[in-house]
Design brief:
This protein is of the alpha/beta class and 354 residues long. It has two domains: 2-64, DNA polymerase, domain 1; 69-345, Aldolase class I (TIM Barrel). Helices cover 33% and strands 19% of the residues. It has ten helices and 14 strands. A hairpin with a 5-residue loop joins β4 (81-86) and β5. α1 packs across α2. The radius of gyration is 21 Å and the shape is elongated. The two termini are 30 Å apart. Bound molecules: S-adenosyl-L-homocysteine (SAH). S-adenosyl-L-homocysteine binds at residues 118, 120-121, 162, 166, 197-199, 220, 262, 264, 293, 295-296, 298, 339-341.
Length: 354
């Protein structure tokens, strides 16, 4: 019975207005309902307090609200929060809140699991079960914002798509969610405070460059030659280093923005002086910034983190060549909330994942 009802959150404001017009309701009701759904984030029609009871009942008989709910929040000793988010079909994805000085950054998932099997990443060990819907992506942001307000009394300032999944393989939903996040009826966050991180889908990087919403782009490079990158990131076989460089050139030219290159430092694999030389050659002529990321150990990958000294020497080698480069410390490691550690370890049993 329930399954036959449509999720009201699949309607945009215009479609909601059309339904209410058909029901001979005053026009302002649509905006009220929309606000309950998207700003107050209620999960039951009966909570829509300024909507007359009869209309609430009619809504309930016609629609369901398939909102995301927080199943569990864990707190790291460094203040990072990890939220296990339960979806309507009982899958769980994880979202992270990273407080950092004046910033409150949400790290958001775009898929249930991931299809890319990057050799160093914990999420890569889960099967990709499905894409998230735009409203589920938006919900994560709204819920992490509520956590930020509850725990730190501050609103979200930044959003990164660096949680589970590959955002550019769920392109349409990610863009739709971002427009809602940026719109005044959504959360009014500037697209300049949003970063989409990709393992490298050249076609979609170009498409992102052409979007009117100018979000920030990060490319997870991690190795600057095909030979090396192929061994850890199978996506490189169809999106070569050269193809990615030309996609970045297009992105820079079209959007006028400076993308970030992410480079996770893996001991003995990509952290030697010759690797830095390959990275310098890749970055030459590209207006980018480079983030050197501390590796968060993931069991059974065989990888370990580079030493601090090696990271500093690597950074110095890049900086000598005039590249902009920052070392990023890991956050939330103790609760498996750091980059590449999201694997629903403490979440609900999800037999489908196995
Ligand atoms: N699929 C997207 C976004 C998710 S991962 C992407 O690949 O960019 C976010 C970042 O964390 C990526 O740069 C990813 O390569 C990196 N990462 C994965 N595993 C990691 C780990 N164990 N330690 C540190 N960073 C990791």
């Amino acid at each position: 019975m329930l399954a036959a009802l449509k999720d009201i959150r699949k309607l945009n404001l215009q479609q909601l207005q059309d339904v209410l017009k058909l029901w001979h309701e005053p026009a302002f009701r649509a905006a009220q309902i929309y606000e309950w759904l998207w700003q107050k984030h209620i999960t039951q029609f009966e909570d829509m307090r300024n909507i007359p009871k009869l209309l609430r009942q009619k809504l309930q008989a016609t629609f369901v609200i398939q909102a995301v709910q927080i199943h569990e929040t864990q707190c790291s000793h460094d203040g990072t929060l990890k939220c296990a988010m339960r979806l309507f079909d009982n899958y769980v994805v994880e979202s992270v809140l990273i407080p950092e000085g004046p910033r409150m950054t949400a790290c958001i998932s775009s898929q249930v699991g991931c299809s890319l099997t990057c050799a160093f990443c914990a999420t890569g060990k889960l099967k990709r079960m499905r894409n998230l819907e735009a409203d589920e992506i938006f919900d994560q942001v709204a819920l992490v914002n509520e956590e930020a307000l509850r725990v730190y009394k501050k609103k979200l300032s930044n959003i990164v798509f660096m949680g589970m999944g590959e955002p550019l393989l769920n392109y349409k939903a990610v863009i739709e969610a971002i427009s809602k996040i940026c719109s005044p009826q959504g959360m009014g966050i500037s697209p300049q405070r949003i970063t989409v991180s990709t393992a490298g889908v050249q076609k979609m990087i170009k498409q992102l460059a052409d979007e009117s919403l100018k979000v920030h782009l990060a490319l997870s490079l991690h190795a600057a030659t095909d030979e090396k990158r192929n061994t850890v990131m199978p996506i490189n076989e169809t999106n070569s280093v050269t193809a990615l460089k030309s996609a970045l050139q297009y992105y820079i030219k079209t959007s006028g923005r400076r993308p970030t290159l992410e480079y996770v430092m893996l001991h003995g694999f990509n952290d030697q002086p010759e690797d830095a030389r390959d990275l310098i050659a890749f970055a030459r002529g590209l207006k980018t910034k480079i983030n050197l990321i501390e590796y968060n150990p993931v069991a059974e990958t065989g990888f370990t983190a580079s030493s601090r000294n090696r990271m500093h020497a690597f950074a110095a080698q890049l900086q000598e060549q005039g590249l902009i480069c920052t070392i990023r410390r890991s956050r939330g490691k103790d609760i498996d909330a750091a980059c590449g550690q999201l694997a629903n370890r403490n979440a609900l049993a999800q037999p489908e994942y196995k």
